[in-house]
């Protein structure tokens, strides 16, 4: 019998002889949907730009005293549009100049960040919970439940968003942050409900859901363990992109005098007041409008990056 010991490699020897990159590929564990999405996000410059901007904005919203010591509500009429922007006076009250009531525009821009982000995050969380819950129930159970929720969604979806919100807010004289959040949530949950319903209908037809149902899994376990985690990605994408829209909606309502009311500080309020003197003092409008644009832009960029990472077809 011929000796084949010199020509036959054992499994251990084959592994040792294989290139290092092949061994690493074979030993690499498959990533989950969220792990794969995070891997994609880490390699997208757009994600890091938006993330850095949002971290700075969140720091400003949480700790405005770190960026200015001026009182945003204290006005001095002797400074009525007196001081133009002094861009070399970094972080000083007169850095952006003063508004028509002699208040520091820089201080108001800084302190206005908190209310704008609170409204945006609050509305996004509320509509995601409400719309996601209704959409999940409609998509999973179908039948009468689906019909009732779908028709209710169609009714609310047919109401113009800003017009309906203006009507709701007009019933309140003291419009604080939570009032604006509730008003925007009242009409803003429909898109999330529709997206979640479609995702749940697709997810519940998957083989793993059918197998779990055959093994006797309870309805609660089916929803929260198997269906919801796999139907959540489109909902998160829509909610992230919509967050910037809710911040813009709050500013629009405040500009029209139906959003946050004094003494609350809002970019929309400042834009409304500055628009009266835009010809002679455009700087009073430029800074709050620029901050609003930057914030909305950052959230939209983040939403686009998350969408691209969670949708394999866009890679």
TrEMBL record:
Q: Where in the cell is it found?
A: Cell membrane
Q: Does the keyword Lipoprotein apply?
A: no
Q: Is the Iron keyword given for this protein?
A: no
Membrane topology of the entry: Multi-pass membrane protein
* BP GO terms, sorted: transmembrane transport
Keyword list, A-Z = Cell membrane, Membrane, Transmembrane, Transmembrane helix, Transport
Main location, first listed in the record? membrane
Q: Which CDD domains match?
A: TM_PBP2 (cd06261)
Q: Which regions span the lipid bilayer?
A: 47-67, 117-140, 152-171, 231-249, 285-306
Q: Which PROSITE patterns match?
A: ABC_TM1
Give any Gene Ontology cellular component. plasma membrane
Q: What is this protein called?
A: ABC transporter permease subunit
């Amino acid at each position: 019998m011929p000796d084949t010991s010199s020509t036959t490699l054992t499994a251990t020897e084959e592994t040792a002889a294989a290139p290092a990159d092949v061994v690493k590929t074979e030993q690499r564990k498959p990533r989950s949907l969220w792990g794969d999405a995070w891997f994609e996000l880490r390699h997208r410059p757009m994600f890091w730009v938006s993330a850095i901007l949002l971290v700075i904005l969140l720091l400003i919203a949480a700790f405005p005293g770190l960026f200015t010591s001026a009182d945003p509500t204290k006005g001095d009429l002797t400074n009525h549009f007196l001081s133009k922007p002094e861009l070399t006076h970094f972080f000083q009250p007169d850095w952006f100049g003063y508004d028509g009531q002699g208040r520091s525009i820089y201080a108001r821009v800084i302190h206005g960040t908190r209310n704008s982000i609170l409204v945006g995050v609050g509305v996004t969380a509320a509509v995601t919970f409400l719309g996601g819950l209704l959409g999940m129930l409609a998509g999973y159970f179908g039948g009468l439940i689906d019909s009732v929720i779908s028709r209710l969604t169609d009714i609310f979806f047919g109401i113009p968003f800003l017009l309906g919100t203006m009507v709701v807010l007009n019933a309140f004289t003291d419009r604080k942050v939570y009032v604006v959040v509730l008003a925007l949530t009242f009409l803003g949950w429909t898109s999330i409900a529709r997206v979640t319903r479609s995702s749940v209908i697709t997810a519940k037809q998957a083989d793993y859901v059918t197998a779990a149902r055959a093994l006797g899994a309870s309805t609660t376990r089916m929803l929260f363990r198997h269906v919801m985690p796999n139907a959540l990605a489109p909902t998160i994408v829509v909610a992230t992109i919509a967050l910037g829209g809710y911040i813009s909606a709050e500013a629009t309502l405040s500009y029209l005098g139906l959003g946050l009311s004094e003494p609350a500080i809002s970019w929309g309020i400042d834009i409304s007041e500055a628009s009266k003197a835009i010809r002679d003092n455009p700087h009073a409008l430029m800074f709050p409008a620029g901050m609003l644009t930057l914030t909305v832009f950052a959230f939209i960029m983040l939403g686009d990056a998350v969408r691209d990472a969670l949708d394999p077809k866009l890679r």
